Amino acid sequence: MFDRRAIMQDAWARYRIERAGFSKFSQAAFRRCLLQAWEKAKFRARYANQSPVLGGPVDHRTDAQRQMDERIDALKYLSARYDIAAMERSIRAEYARAA
């Protein structure tokens, strides 16, 4: 459910920033940093599906644009004997005429 490795990396990064000038390890400071990292992870998990800012980039393409991109993306798996550039131009022209 949670990426514990990422949480620990976040906690250690927070601890290094907070305790930059100190040489001795502080359990209380690391505990605080770990709690903050867990809170951040829980917040992101709770609101990941509700907010596009936290969930990642939003895809504003239409279904036709997505379909065109998938068709063009599939062209790279054809063998080298095909003229992929010409096929891509024809796909783009087909969708431009339909729009």
In words, what does this structure look like?
The chain is mainly alpha-helical. It folds into two domains: 4-55; 63-98. The chain has helices at residues 4-18, 27-47, 52-55, 63-74, 84-98. The chain is elongated, with a radius of gyration of 24 Å. The two termini are 43 Å apart.
> What can be said about the biggest beta sheet?
none
Protein structure class: mainly alpha
Order of helices and strands: HHHHH
Rg computed from alpha carbons, rounded to a whole number of angstroms: 24 Å
Q: Determine the mean pLDDT.
A: 86
Number of distinct beta strands: 0
* Proportion of helical residues: 55-70%
Percent in strands:
under 5%
Topology, please?
Elements: H1 4-18, H2 27-47, H3 52-55, H4 63-74, H5 84-98
Helix pairs in contact: 1-2, 4-5
Task: Kindly list the characteristics that best describe this protein.
2 domains, 99 residues, mainly alpha
Please give a quick description of this structure:
With 99 residues, the chain is an all-alpha fold. It is built from five helices and no strands.
